Amino acid sequence: MLRDITLGQYYQADSVIHKLDPRVKLIATITFIISLFIVKNIVGYVIAAAFLACAIKLSKVPFRFMVKGMRAIVFLLLLTVVFNLFLTPGEALISVWKLTITKEGLRTAVFMAIRLTFLIIGSSVMTLTTTPNNLTDGMEKLMGPLKVLKVPVHEVAMMMSIALRFIPVLLEETDKIMKAQIARGADFESGNLIKKAKSLVPLLVPLFISAFRRANDLAMAMEARCYRGGENRTKMKPLQYKKRDGIAYLFLVCYLAVCVGANVLVRLPF
To answer: Using alpha carbons only, what angle is made at residue 86 by residues 85 and 92, rounded to the nearest 5 degrees?
Structure first.
C-alpha cells in the first residue's frame, strides 16, 4: 500500500512534458486545479478529462503507474463521497432508517469524487515529470515578486521541494520498519481502532528518529558544501523560456477559456 503512493517520485522519460519549463508546469497545475472548481456540469468535466488525458499521453508516463497512486486515497475518497451523499439536503431519492440520499447529494458526491481523482492525477503529472531541483527553481522564480514583502522565497521553495522529495523516501522507510515489526510479531491489522492506533507506536518512534537523522545528515552535507541560497547564487542550468513553453501557455489559455465557456453557455440539469 505504501509503495503505491507516487507523490514526490520522478519518472524518467523523454517527452514534451518533461522538457517544459517547470514554471509552465506549475502554472498549468494551478490552472487545472482552479478549473476543476470552476466547472459545474458534466461537459466541463469531460473537457477537463480530455485535457488531462492529453497531458498524460504527452508525458509518456504509464497511466497504470499514475492510477497506482490513487489506491492510497481510496478511503479518503469514499469518506468524502459518503459525507456528501448523506449530509447534503435536497430532494429525497432513497430513505433508509435515518439516512437519506438526495438528488443534490448524489450529484455533489459524484462531482466531488471526479474532482478529487482529477486533482490527484493532475498533480502527479507535474511531480512525475519534474525533478526536485527544477521544481525548486520554478517555485523560486514564480514567488520572486514576494521578495518585495521580505518573504524568504528561496528558503520556502527549498523546504517545499525537500519535503516533496522526502515523501517517497519516508514511505519506503515506513514500509521497511513495518515489515521488521511484523517479523518480530507485531500486529497492525486486527483489533479495534484504539488498538490499531496503539500498535502504530512501535512504528512511529523509529520513523521519527530516522527522519530526524536524515534531516540532520542533509543539513550537515549542505553546510559542509558551504551552501548559500538566494541572492548572488549562480545556477548551472538557468531557466529560460522556449518556443514550446509559449505554445503550452497558449493551450492553457484556450483550455481555461473553453472551461469557462462551457460553464456559462451550457445549461444542463446535471
So the answer is: 90
CA distance 99 to 102: 10
SS (H, E, C) the chain: CHHHCCCCCCCCCCCHHHHCCHHHHHHHHHHHHHHHHHCCCHHHHHHHHHHHHHHHHHHCCCHHHHHHHHHHHHHHHHHHHHHHHHHCCCCEEEEECCEEEEHHHHHHHHHHHHHHHHHHHHHHHHHHCCCHHHHHHHHHHHCHHHHHHCCCHHHHHHHHHHHHHHHHHHHHHHHHHHHHHHHCCCCCCCCCHHHHHHHCHHHHHHHHHHHHHHHHHHHHHHHHCCCCCCCCCCCCCCCCCCHHHHHHHHHHHHHHHHHHHHHHHCCCCC
User: Would the pLDDT of 219 be above 90?
Assistant: no
What is the average pLDDT score of the chain? Answer: 82
- Is-contact 90 104, C-beta < 8 A? yes
Q: Grid cell 471526479 — which residue? A: 114
- Based on C-alpha coordinates, what's the Rg of the chain? 22
CA distance 124 to 120: 6
Q: Which of 142, 118, 120, 116 is nearest to 26 (CA)?
A: 142
Task: Annotate 45-61 with b (16+ C-beta within 10 A) or e (fewer).
Answer: bebbeebbeebbebbeb
Residue spans of the domains in the chain: they are 1-130+240-270, 154-239
pLDDT of the residue at 97: 74
C-alpha cell at 88: 447534503
Q: What is the pTM of this model?
A: 0.78
pLDDT of residue 7: 63
